[in-house]
Write the structure tokens for this entry.
Amino acid sequence: MNKHAYIDHAAITVTDIEWHIKFFEEILGMTITRRRENEGVLQQIWLDGGIQLIASDDNSGVGKAHHLGIRVQDFKNTLAKMLAYEKVNSIPGKPEKWVQLPDGVVLELFEMPNQ
């Protein structure tokens, strides 16, 4: 059993990413640590504190968790255990680090950095 796993980040889908950035910066004092644009349009941002905001282009999934990023000690072993577990599936077209649990919960796995 992997006893040492923790949330790296929680990703949320939003309609107005600029409003959400302003809120997290002005009210909670969080700062952007990374941003991703496509053809000059802001698509995603990561804030210190483990929040990722993903802009919805069609209002689907708005206000809901997009995925949870999870850090694990042994990536390959944990992934193998997950995929062997009942009702856990890999996600077609995504890298192996992405898995889906029942009810649509999506996890993105990361190996913990060497300490």
Notes: Residues 17-26 form the longest helix (10 residues). The chain has a mean pLDDT of 90.
